[in-house]
Amino acid sequence: MTGRGQDRYTLTGVTKVYPGVVALQDVSLSVSGGEVVGLIGENGAGKSTLMKVLGGLVHPNRGSITIGGTTFAGLTPAEATRQGIAFVHQELNPFTNLDVTGNVLLGREITRRPFGTLDREAMVRQVRPILKRLGARFGPLDPVAHLSLADQQLLEIARALSMDARLVIFDEPTSSLTLPETQALLGVIDDLRRQGVAVLFISHRLAEVGQIADRVIGLRDGRNAGELARAEITKDRMVRLMIGRDLIRSRPDTAPQPDHMTALRLRGVRTAAWPESAVNLDLRAGEIFGMAGLVGAGRSELACAAFGIDGRRGEVTVGATRLPPRSVAAALQAGLCLVPENRKEHGLVLDFPIAANIALPNLAALSRRWVVDRGAEMALARAGRDRLGIRSQSLTRAAAELSGGNQQKVVLAKWLALNPRVIILDEPTRGIDVGAKAEVYAVMRALAAEGVAIWMISSDMEEVIAVSDRVAVMHRGRVTGILAGSQMTEENILRLAVG
Amino acid sequence: MQKKDLGLGILVLVVGAVVSVINPRFLSPINLANTANLIGLFGLFSVAQAFVIVTAGIELSVGSVIALLGVVFVDLIVTRDMPWPAAIAVVLLLGCVIGLVHGWLITRLKLQPFVVTLCGLLIYRGIARFYTADGTAGFSFDDSFPTLEWLVSGRSGGVPHSFMAFSVVTVIAWFVLHRTVLGRHLFAVGKNPEAARFSGIATDRVTVLAYVICALLTAMSAIFFAMYTRSIQPSSHGNFYELYGIAAAVLGGFSLRGGEGSIVGVVLGVVLLQVLQNLVNLLGIPSSLNFAVMGSVILIGVIADTQVASFRNLRRQSKAVAGLDNPADSGGA
Questions:
Q1: Which of A377, A415, B29, B156 is the one with CA 20 to 30 A from A251?
Q2: Residues 6+ apart with CB under 8 A from A81
Q3: pLDDT digits (tens, 9 = 90+) for A283-324
């Protein structure tokens, strides 16, 4: 088909207001066929809203969308699909009860007359060449339940292409992929570009944006923050675009204190995920103990088992107290707490007010004879807000209304109120913006200075090296090494992480 | 008190006012006492249902439990000559056992509450009918238990004791659900069981407790119903009561997804449903339309609720857009 390169998608002066929040204000951007445009911005900068405008899920209050000469005040999901707009989302939700073909053509099944039965052969005929075009290693009849995350993403792309998509929007597509999978995905995106498809690539991972994008557009506080041409794309300039200033990375010189006593001791701990590998660990009071490894290495499972969410074998000791397995209450009692990776599902009751969230694990201390003292509850919430700098108009608002960074601070506040001796942070800065990250690091250092042992699980290599006093690396359920001081390099960690 | 409750309260008053204008007999002491008695009877198991619904569960066996425990209660007193205080204790204990079993099946065997309590609905009804050989269990004319009768179906100063019992239960339930640690845990488990578990809450224990509280209150209402009807037809006694309780809870702002609702709301829901029933009788509407009227009012109530919410949302949005042009008005954020 000729003329595909002329496809042009333009947003002009788009404004979207939510109660209490201006999500987008006068934002303009354009992307053409055969071009990859990187879209960057901190959390809350308006990227998600912008995508919803393009997908027809949100109708802008002002502004317009121009597609190949036609101008719309707003799209509907059906119109967006008709205009060739398709999404590959950050969180994939394929229908695991259907096969690949069923997923790709879901809602656009091919039927046979006269009864409208499914024409499986025609469907497979349509899907097979698309999979080939993407270089997929799975076939049209494979069950989706067994596909890896990376393959599920390819499936999503196949679905986009089957709709004859001319603009594919990738939303944080690499956040759960391994390095080789990421490179393969970037290869696929490059192919799409050569085939004349327009691509909008949204990512926090600036290295990938720099590798793939022809142009980078920055959003900040719901407005255009500027644009970088291919030659101008450097990490520093992208960071400046996102946060409006240079990122100052400084680390106070904290010499490791080897004489500190052991705060958390793991002996022969086995998890259900890796039952054959026993883990021994010692965390000292006042240290930040980083834990690196690839996705699936068993880090979160180890943390959850130690905390008592999941079952375990082996011994976990906090201070002098030996913890019984499968008892979160006992862990909390002994001063061990866990800030879970999945903030929205595990960390917070989103519809609860901020104050009630902070109070949730602290109710015993806040109540007399089982009756909650609501004055004490608000006082605790206020203390948490002031300590962590939670930005919200009121503590009685639902936690759902906060930005990711502020939600994370609420989760931290709810645990810090227990005055823990050991705190496990599982991916504490995932999905929160650069500014909030710096605040989280500051809280961690302050806690460590007070003598709290911090076990930080992170997949962000730079973060692990910058923040930790020591780094343990896991691979397939085992701790393959513990690094300290000058040994903590990306190269060393990666070597241990791959086994 | 939530905004939702206020709206429902106004609705109750408006319906009551309309009925009393059309038929002044609505406000007669006899009618009011009768209505209060029914509110007490139906209110007990509706509040019970609320405890389960707030945990995102459901209890479908309420009607069958009322039939079974009613039959057992009458049988213990009439044919087995058990002293009535002991019979009450046995029935309440049986209620707790039923609640424990339901809770255990749901938390330990991970069965769905709908399935467990649906099976309960069928099983208890069947046992009740078998127990009486499909006959009627009841008091005969010469049976006389004056203290029991006064206690359960009597009146003091014109106020039915069932209504008093309901009032006491309501106040306690309100306190438990809205002021205690257990209440907070029930809401948390209903809204997000995972986050509750990560917060050190024994979610299984909380869930089991919800079913025990529900079954205990249901057993209590079974005694009141047995003494109210005095004769129990086990194939029809208590039919559809579970749906009545669910309806009152939903009308009162409880979400079947859990974690939402208030005791004030469910009480107002019970009152509204009884006033409606009364309206059908007093206004001479064919009583066959009874359920249809109830269903329509619940539907309208739920629709109005969602519409008002989305209207409010819309208005807040347009206000915010207007604020963009006059940033001075919007004030400091």
A1: A415
A2: A163
A3: 999 999 999 987 778 899 999 999 999 989 999 999 889 999
CB contacts < 8 A, A to B, total 88
Angle between helices B62-78 and B113-131 (to 10 degrees): 30
Q: Give the 3-state secondary structure of residue A111.
A: strand
Place of tokens 């209060």: B36
Q: Do B191 and A309 touch (CB under 8 A)?
A: no
Q: Which residues of chain B have pLDDT under 50?
A: 328-333
The rounded distance, in Å, linking the Cα atoms of B319 and A366 is 39
First to last CA, chain A: 48
Instruction: Output the CA–CA distances (angstroms, integers) from residue A181 to A138, A151, A247, B30, in the order listed.
Output: 15, 9, 29, 78
Closest Cα to residue B226, out of B85, B68, B17? B68
Residue in A345, A363, A367 nearest the CB of B195: A345
Q: How far is residue A70's CA from residue A50's CA, in Å, rounded to a whole number?
A: 19
Distance CA(B37)–CA(B277), nearest Å, equals 13
The sign of the torsion formed by the CA atoms of B92, B94, B96, B102 equals negative
Q: Is A69 exposed, middle or buried (0-12, 13-18, 19+ CB in 10 A)?
A: exposed
Q: Regarding the domain delimited by B3-323, which CATH topology (the fold level of the hierarchy) does it fall under?
A: ABC transporter involved in vitamin B12 uptake, BtuC (1.10.3470)
Q: Which residues of A touch B192 (CB under 8 A)?
A: 345, 348-350
DSSP helix/strand/coil, A294: coil
Pairing of strands A215-220, A36-40: parallel
Contact A328 B200 (CB under 8 A): yes
Fill in the amino acid letter for A301. E
Work out whether the CA dihedral A465, A469, A470, A475 comes out positive or negative: negative
Q: What is the pTM of this model?
A: 0.80
Which distant-in-sequence residues (6+ apart) come within 8 Å of B308 by Cβ?
B7
Give the whole-angstrom CA distance, residue B88 versus residue B223: 7
Is B205 in a helix, a strand, or coil? Answer: helix
Contact B191 A352 (CB under 8 A): yes
Cβ-based contacts of A364 with chain B (< 8 Å): 181
Q: Where are the domains of chain B?
A: 3-323
Residues of B with Cβ-Cβ distance to A331 under 8 angstroms: 200
The Cα–Cα gap between A396 and B128 comes to: 49
- The ipTM, to two decimals, is 0.83
Q: How, if at all, do strands A8-18 and A62-67 pair? A: antiparallel
Minimal-distance CA residue of chain A relative to B327: A22
- pLDDT tens readout for residues A384-424: 999 988 888 889 988 888 877 888 899 999 999 999 999 99
Q: A256: which residues sit within 8 A by CB, 6+ positions away? A: A287, A469, A470, A484, A485
